[in-house]
Automatic annotation (TrEMBL):
PEGA domain sequence ranges: 134-194
Taxonomic source organism: Lujinxingia vulgaris
Signal sequence residues: 1-25
InterPro entries according to UniProt: PEGA, TPR-like_helical_dom_sf
Stored Pfam families: PEGA
Keyword terms: Membrane, Signal, Transmembrane, Transmembrane helix
Bilayer-crossing regions: 282-303
Protein name, per record: PEGA domain-containing protein
Amino acid sequence: MVAKIATALTVMALTTAMMAGSAVAQEPVTKQELADSDLATLVQLAREAYEAGEYDVAIERLLLANRKEPDPRLLLNVARSYAQAGDCAMSLVYYAAFIRHPAAQEELIASAQQALDAGKGECEAYSEELGGRIMFESEPMFARVYIDDEFVGTTPTERAGMAPGTYQVRVELDGYADFTRELEVVAQQDATVGALLEEPPAEEEPVATPAIEEPAPADEAGGSVNYVAYGLLGAGTLALANGLIFDLVVIPGIDEERSQLDPGQTDEYNELTQRRQSRANVAIGSYVAGGLLLAGGGAWLLYDYMTQNSADEPSDEDAIQRRLGLRVAPAIGAESAGFVLGGRF
């Protein structure tokens, strides 16, 4: 019954009115070539496929034509193609889509409604609870569309007659970031999913940061700690501190005692004077010893620093020293301290 009524609706999407004056181009072989074809060519190719019994091909080309220039009459021809292919449910879904289309021609609505009403009683797979047309568009085109990980087709494409509910849509194209969204299918309602695909941000090359080498321990750096030199510095510091104690505390105390003596206390005065001179000698000796020790320890450490070779390659100063034969060494005597510089001059 549906097929008979559909035959009466060879409606006008495939009529010569839509193809008048148009030349039929060579049949495209890819979807991109189909998408680039004009409307009249797509309609003619759909008609040829329909007459050859290739109803799936005819449906694809009719839907492409409808996406290029929407015309509700094309939906009638999609319904007729599904009926001829034996898919009564999808045929009725597209009859319903034509009837609710805001631009549907009044003279065709009654015939489409008659086909829909007749088909409801014969097609068990059809239900008025089924969803309408879900159309998928993308920029760029020809992206792959998946609904709940099931491949639907490449954009532009559509799926109709889905059960009401929530679905996960993914649109992907090589070289672009995936587009995902949640789709709510409602009975007898059409919807469009538009995906604007974006190129993923370029990965920034990591900037090479020079590693900061931590100072190596003394034994790894090619030298050892000069404990003797540091001992000399410590001893010199103590000696200077001792001299300051005698000079600032002990000797002033003796002077204070002498100032309190009576003029007749000569023996006591002489004894304090000798003690003061002795303490003064100790202070002077401490200063001299402290200075010598500090000078010697500092000179030794400086010598170690100047003569230490680099772990990797010699420094410019070392190379100059070797070329000139220069040698620097500390010299510590009883009454003096300093450096001895030797070499060719």
